[in-house]
């Protein structure tokens, strides 16, 4: 067997040499040279860069028990992506908490997004709350972004300031 295998290998080697096979390298990749200067840079466009369409807004809600307000109305053709929500508020003491929510419409359906806050201080008549959250909420074009604030239990007055930040995305 060893002799037959050796004979076969030798025959294959002779055949390759006889046919004069050569290894050929692939041609080098072509390169492109850009001659723009720092004063005239290469123009580029990122159509969905969030920094090109930033948004921030805030609303203050004053009322008795539970109150709401429109923070903003979104432009046509622009979906809002909310990335940060901050709340600072106060309610009459004693209270078990401040209830805050963003009311957003997505795909034609309105939904409450409750925003958690923590008590930060209290005096004889008022309890103070705040909270900041990284979120990812969406709101449809041409709809209202609403803010709702209330106290638990009903305390007689509520005041809160809600700030949102994010960016717009173009939608057809």
What does this entry look like structurally?
The protein has 172 residues and is mainly beta. It has a domain at 53-170: Jelly Rolls, CATH 2.60.120. The protein is 10% helix and 52% strand. The chain contains 1 helix and 9 strands; from the N terminus they run αβββββββββ. The longest helix is centred in the first third of the chain and has 18 residues, at 2-19.
In order across it, which strands form the biggest sheet? Answer: 1-9-3-7-6
Which range best describes the helical content: under 10%, 10-25%, 25-40%, 40-55%, 55-70% or over 70%?
10-25%
What is the H-and-E element order? HEEEEEEEEE
Number of helices: 1
Beta-strand percent range: over 45%
CATH architecture of one domain: Sandwich
Keywords:
172 residues; mainly beta; Jelly Rolls; 5-stranded antiparallel beta sheet; 4-stranded antiparallel beta sheet
What is the fold's blueprint, element by element?
Elements: H1 2-19, E1 54-63, E2 67-73, E3 78-92, E4 97-106, E5 109-115, E6 118-122, E7 126-139, E8 144-152, E9 158-170
Antiparallel strand pairs: 1-9, 2-8, 3-7, 3-9, 4-5, 4-8, 6-7
Describe what is shown at a glance.
The chain is mainly beta. The chain has a domain at 53-170: Jelly Rolls, CATH 2.60.120.
């Amino acid at each position: 067997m060893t002799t037959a295998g050796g004979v076969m290998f030798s025959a294959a080697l002779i055949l390759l040499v006889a046919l004069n096979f050569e290894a050929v390298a692939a041609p080098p990749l072509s390169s492109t040279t850009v001659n723009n200067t720092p004063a005239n840079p290469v123009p580029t466009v990122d159509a969905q860069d969030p920094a090109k369409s930033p948004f921030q807004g805030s609303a203050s809600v004053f009322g008795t028990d539970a109150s709401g307000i429109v923070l903003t109305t979104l432009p046509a053709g622009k979906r809002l992506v909310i990335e940060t929500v901050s709340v600072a508020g106060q309610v009459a003491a004693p209270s078990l908490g401040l209830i805050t929510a963003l009311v957003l419409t997505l795909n034609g359906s309105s939904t409450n997004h409750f925003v958690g806050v923590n008590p930060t201080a209290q005096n004889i008549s008022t309890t103070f709350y705040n909270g900041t959250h990284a979120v990812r909420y969406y709101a449809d074009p041409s709809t209202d972004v609403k803010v709702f604030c209330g106290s638990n239990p009903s305390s007689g007055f509520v005041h809160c300031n809600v700030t949102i930040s994010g960016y717009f995305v173009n939608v057809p």
